[in-house]
Amino acid sequence: MKYSPRSRAPARERIRRFLRSRRSFFIFTAIFWATLLICQPLCHAQQYRVCGVALNGVGFMEKADLLQTLVTRSRPSWKFWTPWPKVNEKDLDDDVLRILKFYHDRGYFLASARYEKKIVDSEKCALRAESGEESPAAPCRIKVIFHVQKGLPVAVGTIGWEISGESLTISAARLEKEIKLSVGKIFTSEDYEVSKVAVGKFLANRGYPFADITGKVRIDLKARRADVLFYVKMGRVHTFGDIRIKGNNGFVKKSVFDRAMTIVPGKPYDGRKIDESRSALFNLGVFDAALIQAEKPAPNKEAVPIRVRVKPKKRHSVEAGVGYGTDDGIRLRGAWRYRNLTGHADRFSISARRSNRLEAVSADYRYPYFLDRKNILKAGAGLQTDDETFYDLRTIYGETSVRRRFSGVWSGLVTCRFSVLDPNNVSSGATGVYTDTRSRFRVSSVTAELDFNQMDNELSPTSGSYVNLSIETASSAIGSGLSYYRPEFEGAAYIPVLPGVVLAGHVFFRTIHETEDTPDIPIFLKSFMGGSKTVRGYGYHRLNVYDNDIMVALGGLSAALANLELRYPVFGDFSGVVFVDAGALSSKTLDIDWRNARYTCGAGLRYHTVIGPIQADIGYKFNPPKGSALTGEAAETTRWHFHLNIGHAF
């Protein structure tokens, strides 16, 4: 019969009559109860209270990561007031699949897993079963044991490339240097995905921002090998197109963008230039947000349009902060800032700080791109009072500095400083001709620094290193009442040894020597040790110059420090450290006698926050001093010292 829309009309009428009849009501009611009866066993599936989870066959370092992926978890011991978590059989089956995926992603495709339930309150469960009371409202308590067999891993067998595009100047051998996969190495899903991203980034940095990178993996379980094939469609070479800036609205002058951004229209496209420009704009400190996007070019065009979107910060801001450290007690800080004072992204600020050891008020001015895009000019003045252990010092100062960035990791700094220093309450144990508390000193100095910084994170580094070399010179030729030179070296390295575990090392050396007609170095220019940032078995500035375990001088002309830490994760934002510290002071220039060094060890806890880790350390003295030749007093009897602070020791 030929189809016609009219032929559907009788069918519609029959459906309407059926829905209005009583028979339809009984049919739908029957379907509803049948569905409910079928689904009831699923809805009332046996539930259990989990009071413990164990993993057999799992390495120590893998256990924490694996537990984070599971639904089956026990209650933390410290949350004793909360009920035990509930699970059912489906949750346990799904967790087995999660375990398998966890190991498959890490190259263990032959892994197997199963779970075992151990009932803790078996007598109560037996009584409920006899009475037919298998109610999920009162589930049994169980301990779940997951038995895991990792098996042998699958290694990378071959790596192949199929490259197509406008230009074939980039070889497969060159691309292979960018990937994390290598023949013979365990194949992991993460390395495979990261490799595709790395190849795309490499090509984007060389004029191919729209290259398409895909791949295929063939896994042979019998041979335990994975053959990887990458497909690379490079497309055509592109250049930077026109640059359009949105959101600035005249807030910052165009010359600031010209110096901050390394993107030049017409030059070959380079993704690194976009990253550099974005960081430079954000680091100016006058924008809440700075985004740089590369848009799709017009068909058959090589120029890639660049869109810059910025969101200016408010010109005025007030900041306040509070902290605490065992070295200086409660710390208070406040600041008022005025941004973009002249339209060149400059900044003026007035700040005040106070603690048990420091009171300071200062005014600072910062001018980026001074004469050149690699320079930053800073100028400041202030009044500062230091309440140190063996003296008090009041300082009025003014300084000007220029920092120049030579490359991504190297930078230099030159600082000219003029200050007037007024020491008071100098300890009777201090030696030298400049211990008269009525004296006032005028110091004019020039400091030159060279910095190398390759740390991955400034607040809590996990890899990389940094080195700082500096020398400060004060001379009567520039109007100084004291003449000396003071070289200093500091370096640190951070080596990841296991996932989440970092071995950190730190060394420091400083010395000072009088020049011209200066007969002696005053106490406020000498070096002291002890505290949360140096040798942690001692209190703040309680480590001085020793000879055969007897303190013979306050402060040293030379200071050397070495720290070694092992940092490891504990749980969540908490991590732990174990450390060894060594420090030595000498009354001579360029001289350190390690036979009189002080050694400490200890352990600590870190809680990581957005402003840095909170540090809690307890140090133990290996070789405490016996007493003091200056006062005749015996040394402290306790060998332990506790420190609390914000930030790592180094």
Could you explain how this protein is built, in words?
The protein is α+β, with helices and mostly antiparallel strands. 17% of the residues lie in helices and 44% in strands. The protein contains 9 helices and 30 strands. The strands form 5 sheets. It has a 17-stranded antiparallel beta sheet that branches. A hairpin with a 3-residue loop joins strand 13 and strand 14. The longest helix is centred in the N-terminal third of the chain and has 22 residues, at 22-43. The radius of gyration is 35 Å and the shape is globular. 23% of the residues are buried. Residues 1-7, 39-44, 126-137 and 432-438 have low confidence and may be disordered.
Overall SS class: alpha+beta
Output the radius of gyration.
35 Å
Q: What proportion of the residues form beta strands (DSSP E)?
A: 35-45%
Helix content: 10-25%
Write a concise keyword list for the protein shown above.
650 residues, alpha+beta, 17-stranded antiparallel sheet, 4-stranded mixed sheet, 9 helices, disordered N terminus
